[in-house]
Amino acid sequence: MKKRKGLIAAVVFIILVTAINQFLNYALVQPGLGRTMFYECKNNDYECLILGASHGSYGFDSSKMSEELGMSTMNMCIGGEYMYDAYYILKYALKYKKLKTVILDLDYQYFVNQHDESILFNNVYNAYPACNEKFGYYMHKMAREEYRGTFLRWTNYWQCYKTVGKTIKLKQSDAYKNYSPEVVSMNKYDTYMGNGFVSRSKDYKKSTTSCLDWDESKLDREEGEYVGKIVNLCRKNGINIVLTTVVQDPDTVSEKCSGFAQADAYISDLAAQLDVKYLNFNKLKFDVLDRTTDDFYDKEGHMYGDMAEKFSAVCAKAVKEAIADTLNEEDYFDKDMSNLYKK
Amino acid sequence: MSFISAGFLFTIMITAFIYYLMPKKYQWVVLLIMSFAFYATYGIKYMGYIIFTIISSYIFTIKMEACVDKKNRRRLLIACLLCNFGILTGMKYINFFISNINAVGALFGSTAKLPGFKIIMPLGISFYTFQTMSYVIDVYQKKYEAQKNIFKLALFTAFLPQLLQGPIGRYDRLAPQFFEGHDFDIKNVEFGMQRMAWGLAKKLILADRAYVAANTVFSSLNTYSGVHIVFALLLFSIYVYCDFAGGMDLVIGASEIFGIHLDENFRQPYFSKNLGEFWRRWHISLGTWMKDYIFYPFSISKHMLHFGKFAKKRFGKTTGRVLPICLANILIFFIVGVWHGASWKYILYGLYNGIIIALSNLLKPVYASMAKKCHINTSSRYWKVVSIIRTFIIVNIGWLFDACLTAELAFKAFTGIFRGFTFSVLANGSLLRLGLNMRDYKILIVGTVILFITSVMKEKGINLREFVAQRPLVVRWALYIILIFATAPFGYVGSTTEFVYAQF
């Protein structure tokens, strides 16, 4: 009898803690753009999927890419998206779409900034809709990530306790239920253009945030492993895949040129091993795409919206040619980065 | 899989669920499977080492038991110890030896260098090797019989919660608990979860936060003044205690859920009145291991007995009696230093502790006569407080070896304390540039005060856990829920650090 009572108490306690936790998640976690993007990922029509992190989010103008590629494009680049996040996004997209092309954008910083067990980078996981694929994703996250990231998702939002009423009301609104980007509190200089592209206005004053240095001793092998998994998954599904790196602030590339060159060599080697094309647009000739530091809103190299439009046109053309195997790299790229960025 | 990962907590929950569904006879099998499955998450390739330790210990102890000849038994013991400590030494210290040989070679003008090995240490090797070897030595000493079931021995070696950072358990205390089976008891589950939540709070609210500022100072010593170094050292002492003791709370709490009570590894160490006492309250399981398997055998060895006789003749009765103990202490702490890591800073850390303890033993009569001359009542409360503060300072100086990357930097940090020691820097906002903001400091202060109060209560023999357990259900549950959720708003969010002792 005592044993049974104890068991019931334990179960009731667990249910109570879970219920309170779910309530706190609902009342505190603010709706992010990722939720809208996953909705679009499931419901919009597209044949080309772009995966990557924040550089891609601000760099790939989906409508321009669609226009130049000749196929509708969905940009699923999300800030903090590691390669294993990208892998599960691809799995999610494949559940609903028949893809022709995947563009996988690689930011070298993610290769040397080992994904620790902190809960700072949980944007993708938090936005990922509940589905069978999420189970594998959850197991992966849970095995390595600090428990607050998966159990107490409201950790990063506890300061929102003052607006609990507003958040609950918002989550009950039609706009939220319809996955409208209106419910997302975005930077006032950002505009969500649809299909995953975020355009930042030039009114935003340039920030000084810069890139991490390339440091091979800090290399996270898992990033490379997941690039391989993504490539294999694409091959298995008959999808063309191209690896890219978007253009960054030329001043930063010039300043950290040897690091950028080493990162390029590492990723190029990885691409060669996987037998896929890698287009590093930091090697893009200036006469193909003229760019200055003023086209980027931080030293790290995130683009303003108008630069993204210009870049996307060039990028789509190069990707299209790469897929058709007609790309003459010399038309676009300078092999010697130090020469390209010589002041 | 880290102890603060959701995976670990989930594994404990699932294991507990299956464990209590199983007939008592097979509960240990559940623990064994889960322990190895958990260890495998770090990489299957590392499992070879732990499996070797299990198999070799099993074979040698069985053979030892069957062997009548004393000399042969001893040979078997030595062979087993050599095999296992050999692996530990090889894995942990080979590159250290090589770098020292190269350094000595360079001193004599040699340009030739021995290449180092790329070694990734199997996790928990220091802990499980010491734990299993204690079993081997005990069987040799006929304290108990050898375990005939290799899988049972495997569980003793690889028990999930304690595998990575101890406490270093003893077979005679653990085996009955592992194999007798347990009925579901809500008190065990409640106490276990309570303890785990307390450990997580220590780690995430205090340790990780304190580490940020301490590490900022110690990784850039030239930038900071003496006051900053002292401040960082105080934060480091909070960090290292909360990290290790928090980890122990998790381990002991998780085991408690299964009805298994591990030995305590801490007893309010910062309330120690001398360094010797500190080491009897800090990492207790390592201290007792050293005492039982090195200190006593060494102290009563033939050579030490001869030395004791010689010292008594040469230096008089008192000094002659203390001198062998001093030597044994220096040896013990040298080994403790080496155990902590393959680096001169750890060796010096060990020697620092050993020499201070040896000197304080030797000079005990001098201290006593000085106290008498100065009319100090050494049993007064005032003197106890002075002794605690003095010991805390000595311990903190020792932490410099741990906090800095090299021994050289530790000395630099120590001399740096006396450079520009002006309290005015505390008011110029520089503390807010150490990676923590005002809210972080407030949380650190409040958290440390709570920890201090609970420690004082424990020191006074008040059993806080029983006190909480006797409250009405609503109060208890409210308290637990607050504790479980406290790490969300008050825990440090940033790059969390792995438990420091899990790296040994």
From TrEMBL, chain A:
Q: Tell me the superkingdom of the source.
A: Bacteria
What is the name of the protein in this document? SGNH/GDSL hydrolase family protein
Source organism of the structure:
Lachnospira hominis (ex Liu et al. 2021)
From TrEMBL, chain B:
Give the record's keywords alphabetically. Acyltransferase, Cell membrane, Membrane, Transferase, Transmembrane, Transmembrane helix
Query: Which InterPro entries does this UniProt record tie to the protein?
Result: Ac/AlaTfrase_AlgI/DltB (IPR024194), AlgI (IPR028362), MB_O-acyltransferase (IPR051085), MBOAT_fam (IPR004299)
Q: Which domain of life is it from?
A: Bacteria
Query: Span of the secretion signal?
Result: none
Q: How does it sit in the membrane?
A: Multi-pass membrane protein
Quote the subcellular location field of this record.
Cell membrane
Spans through the membrane: 5-22, 28-55, 76-99, 119-137, 149-168, 224-242, 322-340, 346-363, 383-401, 413-434, 441-457, 477-501
Q: Family assignment? A: Belongs to the membrane-bound acyltransferase family.
Name of the protein in its database record: MBOAT family protein
Native species: Lachnospira hominis
